[in-house]
Amino acid sequence: IVMTQTPLSLSVTAGQPASMSCKSSQSLLHNSGKTAWLLQKPGQPPQLLIYEISNRFSGVPERFSGSGSGTNFTLQISRVEAADVGVYYCMQHIEFPTLGQGTNLEIK
Amino acid sequence: EVQLVESGGGLVQPGGSLRLSCAASGFTFNDFWMNWVRQAPGRGLEWVANINQDGSESYYVDSVKGRFTISRDNSKNSVSLQMNSLRVEDTAVYYCVRHIDHWGQGTRVTVSS
How many CB pairs under 8 A join A and B? Predict the structure, then answer.
């Protein structure tokens, strides 16, 4: 399953919302929504943000939200902060896990 | 607190072998699938291999099939990745991952002559 993310780069003013998308090459509808979003901050290992499409992982701020179904998934940040800078990856794990190319978020 | 500590990385010549290990603590190890994920310099993440709770099932990305072997020792709370016939393109930071939710700091593997 190929995961395709858009955009590849995103520049947002602090305090403004941000949105990024992920499209899977086949529907993930009937598999308990096994898609997730990870954030890799500069110089750090990735960390889990969202699992099963829309569930925030422990400690993840409420400004992060995930949505979607079928083949289209979205990660939204309601108000971007400096701490949110990094590369965001979507992934699926209904089969052997695959990840998107990543969306690089920077602050304007 | 969940902890995953990788070791075993280093510099190896093309065609050589390396064994990575991951020591896990802070959770019931044999309740979880375990994984290895890698990141080549300046590149994205690639899921390399995973293994189920009792070690009876394991899966690999196509590019490492027949060369890498994942294994686990539930008595020692550890998972390993035996890497043979290494290629320059295997150069990466290798992360040990519990399910999808906890990641180690990674160990660097460099394949170069």
Answer: 45
Chain A residue closest in CA terms to B39: A45
Residue A30 binned pLDDT confidence (cut-offs 50, 70, 90) = low
**CA A74 to CA A56: how far, in whole Å?**
13
Q: Is B29 helix (H, G, I), strand (E, B) or coil?
A: helix
Reported as a single tens digit per residue, the pLDDT across B19-59 is 999 999 999 999 999 999 999 999 999 999 999 999 999 99
Mean of the per-residue pLDDT values for chain B?
A: 98
Distance, in Å, from the CA atom of A44 to the CA atom of A35, rounded to the nearest integer, reads 22
Q: Please give the order of strands across the beta sheet that includes B18-25.
A: B3-7, B18-25, B78-83, B68-73
3-state helix, strand, coil in chain B (%, to 5): 10, 50, 40
Task: Give chain A's length.
Answer: 108
Residues of chain B with C-beta less than 8 angstroms from the C-beta of A38 = 45, 100
Query: Inter-chain contact B103–A97, Cβ cutoff 8 Å?
Result: no
Task: Say if the Cβ atoms of A101 and B44 lie within 8 Å.
Answer: yes
Partners of B109 in the beta sheet?
B10, B92
